[in-house]
Design goal:
Blueprint (H helix, E strand, L loop, with lengths): L3 H11 L9 E2 L1 H7 L3 E5 L9 H9 L7 E5 L3 H12 L3 E6 L5 H9 L3 E4 L4 H15 L2 E2 L6 H17 L5 E5 L4 H13 L4 E7 L4 H8 L22 H10 L2 E5 L1 H15 L9 H7 L10 E5 L6 H14 L3 E9 L4 H11 L4 E7 L10 E9 L3 H13 L3 E4 L1
Parallel strand pairs: 2-10, 3-4, 3-6, 4-5, 7-8, 7-10, 8-9
Antiparallel strand pairs: 1-2, 11-13, 11-14, 12-13
Length: 399
């Protein structure tokens, strides 16, 4: 495992390379959480995530003329591409054929050769390893490497000088390099600080490994947080988590969406789903009870604009701000107008209406199906709206 010497070496190599991301408090989010909340805004880091730290620390130690190879769907790709360019090295990055175009273009923009091959990251990793072996290149993994973990540990080195006494640091967990490195550094330079890792419920490979005592390969992962959708952690990162991390918890996609939306609305920060997982855990009550300060590491901010649209809508729905209804009306003049009048009487803003007589509907021959989306204030208002419409005699289902 990494020690103080490896972390201090990484700090020296990264001086002048990484941006300062000093802790930033939020009064609004602290009030919602019931305790002081501060953010480590790594989504504002170069390449849009913490990944430049580990990638640069690994690549800076390579000999002149080495060729770098990596595999990633986004953040690691950009970190490796920039780190290679800064060190005067060529890089080849394998990315899935369905990788988000902005991430592909950003990786190319940092100077890397991008190969779109493989249906997923796992396929790309296998292709990259094989290519590196055949070409005599150096494969740079996203987390399973001591130099990469030591680079990510510089987040913890900085937090040891920034975090308030008695704080709990909350870190997203994918492969485990960030949480393991951060926790190792804090254990050395701020032993009074606790560390809690956060996984998506649909990609809890670290919790599975902790339970089994060894890395476990999940059959599949399913989460909107693609940055932490890792099917299997490594023995290296598992050892760091077992030694230094106090707990690993999980959060749902709905909780991640709400946290992401809150950061966008209140902090004016665009944070990717993986980066918002830590705040989701805080707001979801996954931390031990108490009123002590919490430091949330916002690990990245690279979001495909097309995905962002869906994520914001998902977050609004999860937060009770959208209500989708399926209403069955009698097929006679004035029925739709009556529904519209009822919605107006309840002070609801209609966002979308679809009116169906046939084709995929379960309405009876003398009925029509209306799919309507309205704005609501919060979950309580959403539930009250449903109750009010039913009291008015409408046959409705939430969709």
């Amino acid at each position: 495992m990494i020690g103080p010497r490896e972390v201090e070496g990484a700090v020296e190599r990264l001086e002048g390379v990484v941006r300062a991301t000093p802790l930033t408090p939020s009064e609004t989010i602290s009030r919602l959480a019931g305790r002081p909340v501060l953010f480590k805004p790594e989504h504002l880091q170069r390449t849009g995530s913490f990944k430049i730290r580990g990638a640069y620390n690994r690549i800076a130690r390579l000999p002149a003329g080495a060729r770098v190879v990596a595999a990633s769907a986004g953040n690691h790709a950009q970190g490796v591409a920039l780190a290679a360019r800064l060190n005067g090295l060529d890089a080849t990055i394998f990315m899935p054929v369905n990788a988000a175009l902005p991430k592909v273009e950003a990786t190319r923009g940092y100077g890397a050769e991008v190969r779109l091959e493989g249906g997923g990251v796992d396929d790309c990793i296998e292709l990259a390893r094989r290519f590196a072996e055949e070409a005599g290149s150096v494969y740079v993994p996203p987390f399973d490497d001591p130099d990469v973990v030591a680079g990510q540990a510089t987040v913890g080195w900085e937090l040891a000088r920034e975090a308030p006494d008695g704080a709990t640091v909350v870190v997203p967990v994918g492969g485990g390099g960030l949480v393991g490195g951060t926790a190792a550094a804090l254990a050395r330079w701020a032993p009074g600080v606790k560390v809690v890792g956060v996984e998506a419920e649909g990609a809890a490979s670290m919790r599975a490994a902790l339970a089994a005592g060894r890395p476990v390969r999940l059959e599949a992962v399913a989460t909107i947080a693609d940055g932490i959708a890792v099917r299997e952690v490594s023995p290296l990162t598992l050892d760091h988590v077992r030694a230094y991390v106090d707990d690993v918890v999980t959060v749902s996609d709905e909780e991640i969406s709400r946290a992401m939306l809150l950061l966008l609305e209140r902090a004016k920060w665009l944070v990717e789903p993986a980066g918002a997982a830590g705040l989701a855990a805080v707001l979801g009550g996954r931390l031990p009870a108490g009123r002590g300060p919490v430091v949330v590491v916002l690990s990245g901010g690279n979001v495909d604009p097309l995905l962002l649209t869906r994520l914001v809508e998902h977050g609004l729905t999860a937060a009770g701000r959208y209500l989708r209804l399926r209403v069955l009306l009698r097929d006679h003049p004035g029925a739709l107008a009556g529904l519209a009048a009822a919605l107006a009487d309840l002070g609801l803003n209609v966002l979308d209406v679809a009116h169906h007589r046939s084709g995929g509907t379960t309405a009876a021959p003398d009925e029509v199906e209306v799919l309507v989306t309205v704005e609501t204030r919060d979950p309580a208002h959403r539930d009250q709206t449903v109750a009010d419409l039913r009291d008015r005699g409408f046959r409705i289902e939430r969709s």
